[in-house]
Amino acid sequence: MTVKGPIAPSDLGRTLTHEHILVDFIGADKVSPGRYDAAEVHKVVLPYLKQLKEQKCVSFFECTPAYLGRDPKILKKLSEDSGLNIITNTGYYGAVKEKYLPPHSYAESAEQLSQRWIREFKEGIEGTGIKPGFIKTSVDAAPLSAVQEKIIKAAALTHLATGLTIAVHTGNGKAAMRELEIIQENGVRPNGWIWIHAQSEKDNQLHIQAAKNGGWVEFDGVSASSLKENVNFLSRMKNEGLIEKVLVSQDAGWYHVGEPASWEFRNYNFVFTHFIPELIKNGFTQKEIDQIFITNPAAAFSVQVRRLG
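-> C-alpha cells emitted (309 positions)
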C-alpha cells in the first residue's frame, strides 16, 4: 500500500526498507505541521529522491511515525514528482522514554489504540485518504514499560485486522525477543514482524534466533562508518542460511524541523554506491543481493494476515 494506492508486491522492485524524509523531535505535545514549510521540504528533499531513482531504486519505506513529523501529503507529492513508490505507516513510537507518545496512549487500551490505526488503514490518515502500508512502533531496551508492551499488543491486533506488517524500532535483542512473545500471544506469526535496528544488538546469535523463529531481521544503519560491521552481520546470516529473512537499509535522509540551517541531509545512495559493491567483494552473488533488496521486501511488506494456527 503506497501513498498513491495499492500495488502488487512484484511491483515493489529494488527497495530501501527504512529511511526518513522529514522528522520533528520536539515531542508529541508540540509537534505540528505549522512548524515547517511543506514547499521548502519538497524543494530540499526531491533532488535526493531523484538521485536515488537514478540508482534504480523503485520503492522507499518512510519510517517517520505519527507525532514525529509524519506528513502523508508531502510524501504523496514527492512520490508523484520523483517516480518512487513511497510507503508511509500507522502506529505510535514508544522509545526514547515515551517522549513521542500522545497522552491517550496511556489512557486507552490496546484494543482502543488498534482501532485508531485500523481506521487509518480503512479511511486514510487525518482526512487525506492516504493509507499506511505498514505499522511502525518502537520500544526501548528490555524490560519494556507497560505502555510499550501495550503498543506492541495494539500492533498485533491491528495486523490481524489489516494484514499490515509490524515494524518495531527495538532497543536491544532482549526487547526483540519480548516483542516476538507478545505478537504470538496475540495470534500473529513471527513473519508478520520486523526487528528494526537489529545492528544495535551485537550478539549475532539473537539475530539468528529471531530469523529462525520466522521474524525479519533488519540491518538498517548502513553508512560509511558501519560498512564492515554490517557486511559481517550479513555474512553471518548468509552462513546460517538465513539471507531470506534479512532486510537492509540506511536510516538516512532527514529534513530536521527546528534544527539550525547547518544540519546535513544524508543522501540515500550509499547502499547502492558502496555497500552492495562491498557485499560482492565479500562473496555475495547477484542472486543473493536481489534476494535482500527485491524479494525480501516484497515478502516482508505484502499486505496479508499472518495468523497463528
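Residues 38-54 form the longest helix (17 residues).
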